């Protein structure tokens, strides 16, 4: 049985960043949950800041450079995504949105996604539901119910004791693990392949032969 492929998208622009810190915590929680179910994981972490120039070039030319193309292929082949962005001006970052914009429209269709966001203040905690979730829903991905928002206070001694960050992380991780463990693999068919409309073993020759009868 092949390992479950999880791609982690971190859109933090500083180094180190609280966005990457949250992404790592979510990744660890998901991996641990799946491991407890006997599911092996293959995790690939993508720092979007490392591909910022390539993302812009892809937007301008319509053709992603090799390194970015490989990232896009990994995303399209993933069994699940963990996507975390900082919140700027009450919404996802421009870098995060630009990467989503250069993805193929059908690349993450049906893919379970765990959404995360970071900001300096808890006033932006609803950004996941009013900005980020609709973006992934538009792409026909399947975001899990719980998104995880972390403000600056969540990392300090004054963190929320009623709904602590780790409790939210564990809940979201469990939901993504449930989605992955219960998911039936969907084979993506090339619409230009003869097999897609002639069945297995079909060919253009058989199609042309049928037309000549």
Kindly describe this structure.
The protein has 213 residues and is of the alpha/beta class. The protein is built from 8 helices and 7 strands, in the order E-H-E-H-H-E-E-H-E-H-E-E-H-H-H. The protein has helices spanning 18-36, 52-61, 66-77, 94-102, 127-138, 165-181, 195-198, 204-211, and strands spanning 4-10, 41-47, 80-88, 91-92, 112-119, 142-143, 148-151. Strand 5, helix 5 (127-138) and strand 6 form a beta-alpha-beta unit. The longest helix has 19 residues, at 18-36. Mean pLDDT is 88; it is low at 184-189.
Q: Could you outline the blueprint of secondary structure elements for this entry?
A:
Layout: E1 4-10, H1 18-36, E2 41-47, H2 52-61, H3 66-77, E3 80-88, E4 91-92, H4 94-102, E5 112-119, H5 127-138, E6 142-143, E7 148-151, H6 165-181, H7 195-198, H8 204-211
Parallel strand pairs: 1-2, 1-3, 3-5, 5-6, 5-7
Antiparallel strand pairs: 3-4
Shape: globular
- Unreliable sequence segments: 184-189
Order of secondary-structure elements: EHEHHEEHEHEEHHH
Taking the alpha carbons of the first and last residues, their distance comes to 45 Å
Question: Level of helix content?
Answer: 40-55%
Radius of gyration: 20 Å
Give the class from helix and strand content and strand pairing: alpha/beta
Number of E-type strands: 7
Major sheet, described briefly? 7 strands, mixed
Specify the number of helices.
Answer: 8
Range of strand content: 15-25%
Average pLDDT confidence is 88
């Amino acid at each position: 049985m092949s390992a479950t492929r999880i791609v982690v998208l971190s859109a933090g622009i500083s180094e180190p960043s609280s966005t990457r810190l949250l992404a790592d915590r979510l990744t660890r929680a998901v991996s641990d949950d799946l491991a407890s179910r006997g599911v092996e994981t293959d995790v690939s972490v993508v720092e979007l800041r490392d591909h910022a120039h390539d993302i812009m070039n892809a937007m301008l030319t319509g053709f992603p450079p090799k390194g970015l193309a490989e990232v896009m292929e990994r995303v399209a082949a993933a069994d699940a995504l963990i996507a975390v962005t900082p919140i700027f001006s009450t919404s996802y970052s421009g870098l995060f949105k630009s990467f989503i914009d250069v993805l193929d429209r059908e690349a993450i269709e049906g893919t379970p996604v765990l959404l995360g966001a970071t900001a300096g203040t808890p006033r932006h905690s609803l950004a996941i539901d009013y900005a980020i979730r609709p973006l992934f829903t538009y792409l026909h991905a399947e975001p899990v119910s719980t998104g995880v928002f972390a403000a600056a206070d969540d990392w300090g001694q004054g963190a929320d004791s009623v709904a602590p960050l780790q409790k939210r992380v564990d809940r979201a991780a469990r939901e993504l693990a449930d989605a992955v463990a219960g998911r039936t693999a969907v084979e993506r068919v090339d619409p230009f392949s003869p097999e897609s409309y002639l069945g297995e073993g079909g060919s253009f020759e058989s199609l042309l032969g049928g037309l000549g009868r």
